[in-house]
Automatic annotation (TrEMBL):
Electron transfer flavoprotein alpha subunit C-terminal domain residues: 206-283
Assembly behavior: Heterodimer of an alpha and a beta subunit.
Organism: Varibaculum cambriense
Cited Gene3D superfamilies: HUPs (3.40.50.620), TPP-binding domain (3.40.50.1220)
Function: The electron transfer flavoprotein serves as a specific electron acceptor for other dehydrogenases. It transfers the electrons to the main respiratory chain via ETF-ubiquinone oxidoreductase (ETF dehydrogenase).
Source superkingdom: Bacteria
InterPro entries found in the cross-reference section: DHS-like_NAD/FAD-binding_dom, ETF_a/b_N, ETF_a/FixB, ETF_asu_C, Rossmann-like_a/b/a_fold
Protein name, as recorded: Electron transfer flavoprotein subunit alpha/FixB family protein
Cofactor: FAD
Boundaries of every Electron transfer flavoprotein alpha/beta-subunit N-terminal domain copy: 20-180
Family: Belongs to the ETF alpha-subunit/FixB family.
Record SUPFAM superfamilies: Adenine nucleotide alpha hydrolases-like, DHS-like NAD/FAD-binding domain
Length: 327
């Protein structure tokens, strides 16, 4: 049996973007991880829109609800840090778990400052070893895998949730709920959100997508095959730096050293040679499939399955063989 900590775990649980009364997949994955590492309670910090029923399904013992109208948007690091601080000061927690999104990373850093703790972001694994929470992540552009622990205060950990699984509990139980009395810092109160813009980008969920189809220089500006394959597999479309610099797709899709890092269950690269700048962002993928017409392409060295051929022939053939989920 794996080791566990005895203290409670606090998880920030954000809602599904399309259904605000539901938990996001990322939040359900974080809660599942929390259950695995503690013998104490899993406590969720969540906006009041999420129904407590959804928390009982994933084993949350208690929920501390906040009103976004009162606090302002939680997608601002300062607000998120104050929300977490308000809960932590009233309990005995062994770790705080956040998603490693842009706002999650920002919030983690500010949480560490106000709580006098240490923070780590882009973490892909978390386990208990000899009573310590040991985190794992890749560093130095993905060339090394490291394991470490935070020595001071309550660890603030922002996880790459695509490396995790969401598992419901066998038996549902009643969830304790409480409205949180939020203590905002004076500096936080001075923050004003002037506007929020939905870019409409289909790439915003890349860090959470279970399947990522990525296109590079070899598509020559034609993202049709990538988009079709992603749609059939229920995934998202990403791109290399070159594809973004050419203006073929917006920057939000860029994966790699100066873009985002992903850890999907399945990564499919098409027309990608395997430049170090790109592959350092996909090392967290569980399975890597490469389609490229160059048999010497470096991406084949790390691929679990490779196809040497013209992607404009290979992908349509693959699509004709994939059965729809409802077939």
């Amino acid at each position: 049996m794996s080791e566990k900590i005895e203290k409670d775990v606090l998880v920030f649980a954000h809602p599904d973007a399309a259904r605000p009364q539901h938990l996001s997949v990322a939040a359900a994955r974080l809660i599942t991880l929390a259950r695995e590492i503690t013998s104490g309670k899993v406590v969720a910090l969540a906006p009041s829109s999420i129904s407590s029923h959804h928390f009982s399904q994933v084993g949350v013992a208690a929920v501390r609800y906040f009103d976004p109208e009162e606090t302002g948007t939680w997608q601002v690091g300062a607000v998120l840090a104050d929300l977490v601080g308000s809960v932590v000061r009233s309990g005995d927690f062994g770790v705080v778990l956040l998603p490693s999104t842009s706002w999650g990373r920002d919030g983690a850093a500010q949480c560490a400052v106000i709580l006098g703790s240490g923070a780590s972001v882009d973490v892909t694994s978390l386990k208990v070893v000899d009573g310590k929470l040991v985190a794992g992540k890749s560093v130095l552009d993905g060339t090394w895998e490291t394991s470490y622990y935070i020595r001071r205060g309550i660890p603030i950990v922002a996880m790459r949730t695509t490396a995790l699984s969401a598992v419901p509990v066998a038996e549902f139980s009643e969830v304790e709920t409480e409205d949180l009395q939020v203590q905002l810092r004076e500096s936080t109160k001075r923050i004003q959100v002037v506007s929020q813009e939905d870019t409409g980008s289909s790439h915003a969920g890349l860090t959470e997508a279970p399947v990522v189809v990525c296109a590079g220089r070899g598509v020559n500006g034609d993202f049709g095959p990538a988009e079709q394959l992603a749609e059939v597999l229920g995934g998202s479309v990403g791109a290399t730096r070159v594809a973004c610099e050419q203006g073929w797709i917006d920057r939000a899709a860029q994966i790699g050293q100066s873009g985002i890092s992903i850890a999907p269950n399945l990564y499919i690269g098409m027309g990608i040679s395997g430049d170090h700048h790109h592959v350092c962002g996909i090392r967290g993928a569980k399975k890597i499939v490469a389609i490229c017409d160059d048999p010497e392409a470096r991406i084949f060295e790390m691929a679990d399955f490779g196809v040497v051929g013209d992607l404009f022939t290979v992908v349509p053939d693959a699509l004709s063989r994939i059965k729809p989920l409802d077939a």
